[in-house]
Amino acid sequence: MNVPAAWYLVLAAVLFGIGAFGLLTRRSALIMFMCIELMLNAVNLTFVTFARTLSDIGGQATVFFVMVVAAAEVTVGLGIVVAVFRRRSSISVDELSELKG
Amino acid sequence: MTPLLASSDPLFAHGVTGVVILIVLIKVLVGFGALMGAVTIMIWFERKAISDMQSRIGPQRWGPFGILQTMADGLKLIAKEDLVPAEADRFVFKLAPYLVLIPALVTFALVPIGGTLHIAGHAVQLQMANPPMGILLMLAMSGISVYGVMLAGWSSGSKYPLLSSVRASAQMISYEAALGMTIVTIILATGSLTTHSIVDVQGGGIWHWNIIRLGIVPFVVFLISITAELNRPPFDVVEAESELVGGFHTEYSSIRFGIFFLAEFMNTITMSAIIVTLFLGGPAGWIPNVAHLKWVFPIIWFLLKTTGFAFAYVWFRAALPRFRYDQLMDLGWKRLIPLSLGWMLIVAGFLIAPAWGFLMASLVLLSWILLSRAFMLGQSRESGVEAVLPTIGQRPIPGAVIRRLTDGES
Amino acid sequence: MSAVAYAVPSILIFATAAVLILVGAVGVIALKNPVHSALSLIMTLFGVAIAFVAQSADFLAAVQIIVYAGAIVVLFLFVIMFLGVDRRQHANVEPLVGQRAFAGVGVVITVAGLIALMAKAHWVTGAMSVSTNGVALATGQGNVKQLGTAVFTTYLFAFEATAALLVIAVVGAVLLARRERTLQSDEVEV
Question: What is the ipTM, given to two decimal places?
């Protein structure tokens, strides 16, 4: 009736990989946040897929919470980005190295 | 079949056959065709009504009472040169008009414009689609429609449109919260998300309409928020001519500008229809006992109600001065969001039991008092030390003096 | 209706979702302009929403569009426009030598590991499966009912905790982003 769950799992894994690669290589804080969103979405997709395969609504409930946490994370994260940009008019994470010992 | 289509539309109950596909196709074509026709009439209607209110004549050259004016304007726009500014981000610039248009169309697809027909053994609901997530889809689409305005302003590569798009995004997100809260109130009272059952529940006469059943407050909040969501006057700071030239579509010309223009009026009609669906029972109304024609009357009722709201929007535009941007944000965040949230709690309480309802009402009242006290404190802190001084001697400071102190006149 | 009759549409749905997700994701990390990246992100989010619908998570699909596409990405775009970082060209140099190669290798290993884990493991449902009493997940309205019941009974504490988290996040964001008011504030010079 539906495509095998494994297809969606592999798709989610690849999406996670792309997000992780972006997070590791991009310098702009904004893009890095977007990559985190990609990874969160990959995890959400996995949760939903397992919720279907295991007939457990708990997976979907978890996704709901992940979305709320993602919203909170973006709010605070972008607040930090704005604050940092005010100070040094750049959002490149490489220049934030004052705490280097 | 996908689960999205499956559960709530009786048309798909017996599987998808050629007849079903044909019916859906006809529904979509007739629906969107009617919407397009309605838009041209709406544009003419708005111009004519505004002219009457301002003691002008308005369009009168083309067709009887100038009713073909919109066609003439459309032809003129198509014939004009399509300019893309040199500074523009070409792809996004070309994409943006469609992002404004599509949400309007999709939202209209949810509106039930009549009852249920029986054609060739199929139960046909007179609405283009009745997905199980009905009204949430409307919220989603109003979220998407932000992008059109935002990206149009940004991609123009020009200062005023950019300012306009920043304003638009903040405004539309702010009012979406109040909008969502009122919709939750309706969903609570209906017990279902589909637009069809929202209309069904309101079927039993005027006392069952949500505008009365839920108290007038959600309706007022919804009307204000949806007007802000539409960027229509008095909330049209996005395209305030006196401040921002033409707003987000300053750099657009030719048919791309035409699409924005079309989408704006299409949104007005769609949102009028949504208000009618959510609060005024949609196609509900008195049906005379005429054989074979009973299905026509709900449609007529629906059209009448929707026209009423379309006229109300025109009236708002003629009668109300534009909000200042900070006033707009104040209204959204400090008034409408707490109000809709509190009212949702009260309605939820009364749905359980009257005792709970009164408890919730008293709680809401208490928090309202605290909240308004907090706003007062915050405001006096914002406007500086001088404004906090309560009195000079025994008399309160006259309003003019306070204003001079707090407005920072130096 | 036999199961075979449904196979082709569901494959089509999966293919659409997969194309949207992957093209969008690659766009996010490959495009230079942050606004274009944000648009690609929306594409991915829509793909994920389609995947949700196909897997009987209707409500989550709607929330995905409303919350992610309607609020979070708008917030991203708002910050991009607000700060004006859109037209700035970021230097395409690698401050750390071989960072991309290392990242690539690490990601490939991770993804391969994940897929291997999925292929080898035997997934059984845990204790929480009582939340639906072993009944298959419903679609449409039933999905909302199931999810609501789960969130407001089994996961009530988590729900309240996220509510508190959101309030804290809002207050924190306001504090972080607000400009300190000084005597020479912007309003005076009008």
Answer: 0.88
Tens digit of each residue's pLDDT (9 = 90 or more) over C17-76: 899 999 999 998 888 888 888 889 999 999 999 888 888 888 888 888 888 888 888 888
What's the CATH number where C39 sits? 1.20.120.1200
B7/C139 touch (CB, cutoff 8 Å), yes or no? yes
User: What is the domain-level CATH number for residue A73?
Assistant: 1.10.287.3510
First to last CA, chain A: 58
- Show which subunits contact B, needing at least 3 CB pairs below 8 angstroms: C
Q: What percent of chain C has pLDDT over 70?
A: 74
Residue C45 within a domain: yes
Closest CA to B108 of B48, B170, B33: B33
Alpha helices in B208-289 (DSSP H): 210-213, 216-230, 241-244, 254-279
pLDDT at C187: 47
Residue A99 counted as domain residue: no
Specify whether B280 is located in the same domain as B407: no
The most distant pair of C-alpha atoms in chain B lies apart, rounded to whole Å, by 85
CB contact under 8 A, C54 and B2: yes
In terms of domains, do B327 and B363 share one? no
* Structure confidence by residue, pLDDT tens digits, B229-242: 888 888 887 777 77
Residue C9: what residue type? P
pLDDT of residue A39: 92
What's the pLDDT at A40?
A: 92
Contact C35 B193 (CB under 8 A): no
Count of pairs with CB atoms under 8 A, one residue in B, one in C: 109
- Which among B154, B165, B16, B32 is positioned nearest to B93, based on CA atoms? B154
pTM of the model: 0.83
Q: How far is B276 from chain C (nearest CA, A)?
A: 22
Nearest residue in chain C measured CA to CA from B161:
C81
DSSP string over C94-148: -SSTTHHHHHHHHHHHHHHHHHHHHHH------GGGGGGTTPPPP-THHHHHHHH
Band (pLDDT 50/70/90 cuts) for residue B1 is very low
Report the number of distinct structural domains present in chain C. Answer: 1
H/E segment holding residue C166:
helix C156-177
Nearest CA in chain B to C12: B2
Nearest to A56 among C29, C128, C174 (CB): C128
Number of folded domains in chain A? 1
d(CA B167, CA B178): 18
Q: Provide the domain limits for residue B63.
A: 3-352
The answer to whether residue A95 is domain-embedded is no
One domain for residues B321 and B200: yes
Is the four-CA dihedral C87, C92, C93, C97 of positive or negative sign?
positive
Distance spanning both ends of chain B, measured CA to CA: 70
What residues of chain B have any CB closer than 8 angstroms to a CB in chain C?
1-4, 6-8, 15, 89, 91-92, 132-133, 136-137, 139-140, 142-144, 146-147, 150-151, 154-155, 162, 165-166, 169-170, 172-173, 176, 180, 192-194, 408, 410
CB contact under 8 A, B6 and C144: no
